[in-house]
Amino acid sequence: MQGKSARKAYLFAILAVLFWSTSPTAFKLGLRFQDTCQLLTGATLSSFLVLGLLLIPGFRFRKLAAFGWRDIGFSLLMGFLNPIAYYLILFRAYSILPAQVAQPLNMVWPIVLVIISIPCFARKSGGRASEP
To answer: How crowded is the C-beta side of 92, counted as CA atoms within 13 Å?
Structure first.
């Protein structure tokens, strides 16, 4: 990366870390006024609305009609596993742990996901799938 694209990449990386690092405070504040299911419902609906609004320009939502019921069912299953199942566990942890303890647990999940995916998908980290 050079010049403008490198600066843009660094800006996005810094913003991601900044926003991700403030999540424990936001979760703790939210859990002070709502229970876990209410907070999760609000977050899920907000995400759904934002993603829906992102599909409106250029009429990209028409592409959704190309998906079959099997694809929709799989998407619903994945939508249950993450964010719903994951965040139910995470919000419960935030409700019983101090934010400074729960945040490192939250930061470790991408690393654990990569490690677990290696044997599940027969891949080396950063590599291509192995031939059967």
So the answer is: 7
